[in-house]
Structures are given as C-alpha cells and as structure tokens.
Amino acid sequence: MALIACEECGQPISQSASTCPHCGARTRHSRQFISGVVGMLLGVIVVYVLVLTVGQLSNGGSQRLGQSMASSVPTQPAKAP
Ligand SMILES: [Zn+2]
After folding, report:
1. Amino acid 33: pLDDT
2. Which sequence spans correspond to the domains of the chain?
3. Which of 11, 34, 68, 73 could form a disulfide with 22 if both were Cys (CB 3.0 to 4.6 A apart)?
4. Strand partners for 13
5. How far is the CA of 40 from the centre of ligand 1 (A)?
6. What is the pLDDT of residue 68?
7. Residues with Cβ within 5 Å of ion ligand 1?
C-alpha cells in the first residue's frame, strides 16, 4: 500500500484512499474512479440507445419489406383446372 502526498494539504495518505483523512480532499484516485464510472455509464447508455434505434429500424424495415412483398404478390384467385 503506497503512500502519496495529498494535493491539498501535502500530508501522506494511502494511494487507495478516495479522500484525504487529514483535510478530506478527494484524491486523484477517486476522481479517476468517478470519471471512469461516469464514462462507463455513458457508454452503456449510448450502446442501449443504439441497440434500441437499430432494433426499431430493423423492425420497421422488415415490416415495410413484408408489406411491399405482400402487395407485390398478385391476389388473383387460383385458376380452376
Ligand atoms: Zn489532504
């Protein structure tokens, strides 16, 4: 467990500590952790929106394709032999 100097008060604090026990300032470690969590959440949200958008697009495309195929199929009654 390495010790680093607090950016605010300069006291030696644990590298794994999220806040300085002397002055309560947040360490670089906690900032990186928070930014990482925020970035991960943003990434998850972006992927979620992308999946929803692509899913809607593919659903609409297949529906349009099915409708166009159904309308192109002639609806004439079967010829009697
Ligand atoms: Zn401090």
Report:
1. 79
2. 3-59
3. 11
4. 4
5. 28
6. 59
7. 6, 8-9, 20, 22-23, 25
Residue with tokens 């949200």: 45
Task: Output the CA angle 35-31-21, nearest 5 degrees.
Answer: 155
The string of pLDDT tens digits covering residues 8-66 is 999 999 988 889 999 999 887 667 778 889 999 999 999 999 999 998 888 765 555 55
How far apart are the CA of 39 and the centre of ligand 1, in A? 26
More confidently predicted of 76 and 16: 16
Cβ(6)–Cβ(23) under 8 Å?
Answer: yes
Q: Radius of gyration (Cα) for the chain, nearest Å?
A: 30
**Where are the alpha helices (H) located in the chain, listed in sequence order?**
28-72
